[in-house]
């Protein structure tokens, strides 16, 4: 769920600037032949991927920039175990972290599995499944458009921030109330009603879409989203360190960083972003999931081309996640397509919660994959935070940063 404040600028993490770097060689949980790459992904894989060199990444962590109090970066490729793991501050290589909107990739994958099972029609109007939740004026919005962020839905309603007073990090809203509040606010906004985009005409990354996807999964299956997530992804892939906490569970398994907003420790926080941004995981588990997704273990061929097809529509001007001017970047599977400076194409997702900025990216053939989790301390500028993430991703794949897209935003939001 998108948040409309910039409170994350004030995040700090307890810890030191000590850096621990470890090197290893290993095999991912699942590997894929180049032919197994998603059809759309394979078609856009260009450029030359050089051999991995850990030095550029190591230099990014030692010393760690003053505006980050902790970091974890894991790079994987062919063979056994990670190619390289680096940590900085009071963070360990097996640390748990709140993954924010990386959750979207899990949620959209569950929905696409239901499409493959013909329990959801990709071009079904969403309102036909959720008539009491989606207003009539959005009756033409399809499941496909919700999945690829071309629904034209309004922005999410405001969510808890430090302005809500003591204990704000423990506050939350239910998914249903969050969706209803967003549509109610939009209905009272004359400017929105005058300029609301028609469904399928423009891509605007929007957490409201994924909240609706989670509710759609529950309506179609009759089970909670947590149950479907566990049965379809977490247990089959043995993601033992990945979870979607229950609505009242503010804890996080150890080991983990301790994170702060100003003087408030917010390590324990409400997981209210739910199917849109509420999950907890580790670098190893996220690499296993991304490997399984790109290799075809989670989606049958009948929906894989759909899953990785970026819509041929303009990118909304306010959509800062797809930096290439005028071009959409998100596919229905919940991942973004990112082109690096030398033409190498990768797929992945970013996410954040108070105290954490995370992401994962991989080449379509899975020969190079990176997972990162950062702990911003709030002393940097928005551009510094963004540039640092771009530099990490670039160093992991090519040694130079991407030329397009903005995979990090230090604003306080789950992405």
Structural write-up:
This protein is an alpha+beta fold. 29% of the residues lie in helices and 14% in strands. It has helices at residues 39-44, 55-61, 103-116, 126-129, 143-147, 175-187, 190-195, 207-221, 225-234, 274-277, 283-295, 301-307, 382-397, and strands at 11-13, 19-23, 68-76, 84-89, 97-98, 259-261, 264-265, 280-281, 336-339, 345-353, 356-362, 369-376. Strands 2-4-3-12-11-10-9 form a 7-stranded antiparallel beta sheet, with helices on both faces. A hairpin with a 2-residue loop joins strand 6 (259-261) and strand 7 (264-265). The radius of gyration is 20 Å and the shape is globular.
Annotate the secondary structure layout.
Elements (H helix, E strand, L loop, with lengths): L10 E3 L5 E5 L15 H6 L10 H7 L6 E9 L7 E6 L7 E2 L4 H14 L9 H4 L13 H5 L27 H13 L2 H6 L11 H15 L3 H10 L24 E3 L2 E2 L8 H4 L2 E2 L1 H13 L5 H7 L28 E4 L5 E9 L2 E7 L6 E8 L5 H16 L18
Antiparallel strand pairs: 1-6, 2-4, 3-4, 3-12, 5-8, 6-7, 9-10, 10-11, 11-12
Helix pairs in contact: 3-8, 6-8
Summarize the structure.
The chain is α+β, with helices and mostly antiparallel strands and 415 residues long. The chain contains 13 helices and twelve strands.
